[in-house]
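Extended Data, panel c. Modelled sequence:
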Amino acid sequence: MLYDTIRLIAPNEEFFCQLVRAIFEDSGAFEESPTGFIPKLNTSHLQNGVYRTIGKMMSTLIIQGRKALALLAACVVDYILTGDVHQVNATPDDVSASELRGMLKKVEKSSTERELEDAVKRCDSWRFEVEGLPNPVNMNTKDTFVKKATLFHVILERQACLDQLIDGLSYYEVLPLFRGIPIMRIYLDFPNVKKEITADDVAGILIPRYSPLGCPRRKSQEMMVIKFQEFLHSVQDKELEEKFGSRTLTEAEKAFLETLRPVHILEFATGRSTFPVLRFIPHPQMIFLYDKSTGHPKANTSKNELQICVNCRTLADSDEFDYFFVEALMNSSVCR
C-alpha cells in the first residue's frame, strides 16, 4: 500500500514542478530579475489572455497550498495586493535587463556631479521617452529620477500584463483573500534570502566539456579543472596575493584582489551575480581552448561559457594561470 501511495504522489510532484517551470520559464510571460520574476511585456499574450490564464493557474495552485509559487519580485506583489502604483516599492534590483539595471545603479550611487553627469548620459537612449522624469538630473533630483524610472520599467511599462494577471488571480476568490490577509503574500513573494556564493558553488555549476576518455587532451583538461578549482579557493580564502609573492603587484592589482570573490568569476562566465531561481539556460560549461597565443580565459555570457586556455604557460607549475585569470577579470566589468 505504501509503495502504491508513493507511486501516486511522485508524478503529481513532478507535474507541479513542470507546471511552475511552464509558467515562469517556458511561457515567455515572465523574466527574472535579482529579486524574483516580473511580467514580460508580450503583446500576443495580452491579446490572447495568457496572463489571465496564468493567474487562474496560480490561483488553483495556491488553493492547493502550493507556497512554492513564491517566485514573484516583491514590487510585483505590492501592485497585485494594492492595485496602486504609488504603493509599489521598486528598486533597480527589480529591473530584469542587466544593462538597464546597471545604468540606474550608477545614477543611484553617483557621489559627485561629474559621476552623475556621466551616469545620466548612459541613460540618454531611453530617458527622454519616459514622461515625468526630472530634467536636468542633479544631486537633489537623482533619487527621484531612479525611483520614477525604475517604476516605469518594472510596473508601468507592464501594467496591462499585471492587470490581466490580477484578473486571473481573482479566480476562486484568491485575490480578495490576499488583499484581506496581507501576510498571505508569502505565497507569492520571492524569499529575500541572500547567500554568499562560494568557490564550490561556482566550481559545481560549471560543467567541464571534456574530450572522450583516452583522448590525448583529456589529461591536460583535467589538470586545468584542478587549477581552476584551486584558483577559486584562493580567491575565497584571500590567498592570491600570497601566491603572487614573487611578483611586484601594482596598487590597483592589490586593491582588486581585496574585493575579488567567487561570485565575480560566476559573473564573468555567465553575466549573472546570482543563481537563477529555476535554472541556467543554457547550463554553464567550461570549455578548453588550445591557444598558444594567450593564456587569458574568455567568456561567452550568452552561452554561459567559461573558456579556459590550455598551453604550456597555463599548465606550468607556477602562478601564470592565476595571474592570467586576474588580468582577464580586471579587464572585464566585474568588480566595477
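Residues 2-90+156-187 form one domain. This feature is highlighted in the accompanying rendering.
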